[in-house]
Write a structure and sequence with these properties.
Oligomer: heterodimer
Shape of chain A: globular
Largest sheet of chain A: 7 strands, mixed
Distance between the termini of chain A: 40 Å
Strand content of chain A: over 45%
Distance between the termini of chain B: 35 Å
Helix content of chain A: under 10%
Helix content of chain B: under 10%
Largest sheet of chain B: 6 strands, mixed
Structural class of chain B: mainly beta
Number of helices of chain A: 0
Number of strands of chain A: 11
Shape of chain B: globular
Order of helices and strands of chain A: EEEEEEEEEEE
Radius of gyration of chain B: 13 Å
Order of helices and strands of chain B: EEEEEEEEE
Strand content of chain B: over 45%
Chain lengths: 121, 108
């Protein structure tokens, strides 16, 4: 059974940094692309970033490009999102999600429960 | 960027009734690259439909997806208590992989 456990959220000041993690189990992690999706308070879902199965190719939304970095450790079945220069508008629940194959031009078939990021002074 | 517009914003229905949710794209989307998800507070989002009309694993047949080009529909034939939630469409054929604004299905 696929399990994705998000962690690392918390309160951070504007301009600060935070690293989110996602522990994956129940599937061959390196065979699948992974991604992050967020939901700001009272808003809809927003795709944030994706990484292919091997980790050599990444893609990010313009809203986070240059500030957020997605990476993975296939030896530890872990996905991470390094978030720098955080802004108030980055406050959201961040969901880790598994793509249905090794590339990110596909749908998310499993999601984590989410981790809350609050950006405030 | 492809913009997905979902309507209505809110549907007020009773258990057992049917629901029809719309997702309209600002430009043509290949049917292979349109999905639907359900989001309930405090829970992980769940994939319902991919490729516009294929049900995901474990999704009951009261859920069906249809459409092509710029107009797509999610139909729930008989609402169960767990179906009262927010539903999102998403295209994934090109970046950015945008979601629609969501349709909330609430108990009347």
């Amino acid at each position: 059974e696929v399990h994705l456990v998000d962690s690392g959220g918390g309160l951070v000041q504007p301009g600060g940094s935070l690293r989110l993690s996602c522990a994956a189990s129940g599937f061959t992690f390196s065979n699948y692309a992974m991604g992050w999706v967020r939901q700001a308070p009272g808003k809809g879902l927003e795709w944030v970033s994706g990484i292919n199965g091997g980790g050599g190719s990444t893609f990010s939304a313009n809203s986070v490009k240059g500030r957020f970095t997605i990476f993975r450790d296939n030896s530890k079945n872990t996905l991470s999102l390094q978030m720098n220069s955080l802004r108030a508008e980055d406050a959201a629940i961040y969901y880790c999600a598994k793509y249905s194959n090794s590339d990110y031009y596909t749908y998310f078939d499993y999601w984590g429960q989410g981790t809350l990021v609050t950006v405030s002074s | 960027e492809i913009v997905l517009t979902q309507s209505p914003g809110t549907l007020s229905l009773s258990p057992g009734e049917g629901a029809t949710l719309s997702c309209r794209a600002s430009q043509s989307v290949s049917s292979s690259y349109l999905g639907w998800y359900r989001l309930k507070p405090g829970q992980a989002p769940r994939l319902l439909i991919y490729g516009a009309s294929s049900r995901a694993t474990g999704i009951p047949d009261r859920f069906s997806g249809s459409g092509s080009g710029t107009d797509f529909t999610l139909t729930i034939s008989r609402l169960e208590p767990e179906d009262f939630a927010v539903y999102y469409c998403q295209h994934y054929g090109s970046s950015p992989f945008t979601f629609g604004g969501g349709t909330k299905v609430e108990i009347k």
